[in-house]
Amino acid sequence: MNLRLWANSRAYLLPPKRAISVRAFSSLGFINPRPRYQVVSLPPGTTPPVSGLPRITHKIRFYTMSSDKVQPNGMPASKPVLFFDIDNCLYPRSTRVQELMAKLIDEYFEKHLSLSQEDANKLHNEYYRNYGLALEGLVRHHRIDSLEYNSKVDDALPLEDVLNPNPELRQLLEDIDRNKVTVWLFTNAYVNHGRRVVRLLGVDDLFEGLTYCDYAQYPLVCKPSKEMYLKAMREAGVERPEDCFFVDDSYLNCQKAQEYGWTVAHLVEEGFPLPKTPSCKYQIRHLRELRDTFPQFFKSTQS
Ligand SMILES: [Mg+2]
């Protein structure tokens, strides 16, 4: 059941329907980490007071749970979560977003650290290798303002020119059974970029939330640090690593996720060399292969 609801207000449920758990999502912006809504059951014959509420901001989805999914303490049992990386994962490398981003990062290094083009490129790659995020090196060693960096790099990318709605991706995500699994974004980008990408791909309404690298926070917490994976689990509402499933194009992110107890599929696009040693249990060449890798989460196995 989908209802429209108002931020900081109440959801009124009339018998015989019962809301056991509430998850919130929005096409305008994800709610992290938890929705601030109160669910109230009303007696039969009562009319919920709906007048005088502020503007509609979020849609709420209610899941009615069967008794076998309720723990002894009456709380909903933890549902598995399927985490999706965003960049070079939800869209192919052929979009060349990575190259566009690398160019902007190099320019940023050149300008802000007064480096030659060659040295800027070298340092950028060194930080990326060492920290998994070029920005991490900039913040750590040069006290760069992360949000200013974000506005000059991620937010300055001409994504509108290269990313388009992807019907196949949309179908794949729609075929995931939300009664069986929570579908969650997990990125090292800042929230603006993450939201922008899924909106341009036309799939922003198909994820229940987003865990991103908070550039406003220092020190930065990002994949592959364990803290970032724990943050994702907290935000997605999952407690046990064995309930976490993940797809990412980064070897290191996949390797670490598996080390932390997640079940992982490493996306190595067709045409790119497979690593000599697999990073994790599963390797896939295209996201559509998730239907076979994690068939337990799909409504059907047909593409
Ligand atoms: Mg990626």
From TrEMBL:
This is Pyrimidine 5-nucleotidase. GO terms for biological process: nucleotide catabolic process; pyrimidine nucleobase metabolic process. It comes from the Eukaryota. Gene3D superfamilies: 1.10.150.450, HAD superfamily/HAD-like. GO terms for molecular function: nucleotidase activity.
